[in-house]
Automatic annotation (TrEMBL):
Active site, per annotation: C57
Higher taxonomy: Bacteria, Pseudomonadati, Bacteroidota, Flavobacteriia, Flavobacteriales
Alphabetical keyword list: Oxidoreductase
Annotated function: Has an important function as a repair enzyme for proteins that have been inactivated by oxidation. Catalyzes the reversible oxidation-reduction of methionine sulfoxide in proteins to methionine.
Name recorded for this polypeptide: Peptide methionine sulfoxide reductase MsrA
Tagged with keyword Repeat: no
The organism of origin for this protein: Croceivirga radicis
Length: 228
C-alpha cells in the first residue's frame, strides 16, 4: 500500500505542463527537433484525409494515433479556441481557450473515420471534466472535432452506442463534439516527443503506460511492426 501511495503521488507531480516547462531550460533533458521537424517536412500529405481530436496531453495522443495502421502522420498542436498563434506556455497555463490537440493524416482506404473515433474514445477517459490523468485544466479537455455533418453523426452515434452499452456505467461522457475551425501546430520540440524523449519522467510514468494500454486493447488496429 505504501508503494502504491508513493507511485500515485509521483504521477500527480509529473504533468505534461509543469515538468516540460522546467526542462525547457535544460536541452540535455529534452531533445530539440532540428531540421527533421514535422512543421518543416517536405512530404506530400495532400492525398490523405485529416481528423482532429483532443484528449489530454498531446504527447500521449500523438503516440497513440501514430501506432494505428493507415495513419501516415500525426501533428501535435492546439485547437478549440479563438486566439491566433497560441504558444505552449499560454495554452498549458490556461491563458487561452485552446486545448492540446492532434492533427491526424490517414488513408481512408486503410482506416475509416469511424475507427479513428473508436481509437479516440478507447484511448482516454471521456468522463473526466477538464482532466486527463495528472493533467488538469480546460486545455486537457476531451473534444472530438468534426469537419462535416457525416463526421458529426459518426461521433454522436458512437457516443450513443457507448451509452447504450453502459460502457462507463453511471459516469457521463463529457466529450465535447465541436465543429473544426483551425489547427495550430505546436512548437517543434513537441513533435514526436515520446519517441525523442523516452527517458522523460512524464513519458515513462504516464505516456508509455497509456500507449501500452491502448495497444493491448486495439491489437487489430495496430501497424504491423507493433502487433507483437
Amino acid at each position: 500500500m505504501k508503494n502504491y501511495i508513493l507511485l500515485v503521488a509521483f504521477i500527480a507531480m509529473v504533468s505534461c505542463k509543469g515538468n516540460t516547462k522546467s526542462q525547457q531550460l535544460d536541452t540535455g533533458k529534452v531533445i530539440q527537433n532540428t531540421k527533421e521537424t514535422k512543421n518543416e517536412t517536405t512530404q506530400d500529405l495532400s492525398a490523405y484525409e485529416t481528423a482532429y481530436f483532443a484528449s489530454g496531453c498531446f504527447w500521449c495522443v500523438e503516440a497513440i494515433f501514430e501506432s494505428v495502421k493507415g495513419v501516415k502522420e500525426v501533428v501535435s498542436g492546439y485547437s478549440g479556441g479563438s486566439e491566433k498563434n497560441p504558444s505552449y506556455e499560454d495554452v498549458s497555463y490556461g491563458r487561452t481557450r485552446h486545448a492540446e490537440a492532434v492533427e491526424v493524416y490517414y488513408d481512408p482506404e486503410v482506416i475509416s473515420y469511424f475507427a479513428l473515433v473508436q481509437v479516440f474514445f478507447g484511448s482516454h477517459d471521456p468522463t473526466t471534466v477538464n482532466r486527463q490523468g495528472p493533467d488538469k485544466g480546460a486545455q486537457y479537455r476531451s473534444i472530438a472535432f468534426y469537419k462535416n455533418e457525416k463526421e458529426k453523426k459518426t461521433i454522436q452515434d458512437y457516443i450513443t452506442l457507448l451509452v447504450s452499452e453502459d460502457v462507463y456505467g453511471d459516469d457521463e461522457i463529457v466529450t465535447q463534439v465541436e465543429p473544426f475551425e483551425k489547427f495550430w501546430p505546436a512548437e517543434d520540440y513537441h513533435q514526436d516527443f515520446e519517441k525523442r524523449n523516452p527517458n522523460h519522467s512524464y513519458i515513462k510514468a504516464v505516456s508509455v503506460p497509456r500507449l501500452n494500454r491502448f495497444k493491448a486493447n486495439f491489437k487489430d488496429y495496430l501497424k504491423e511492426d507493433l502487433e507483437h
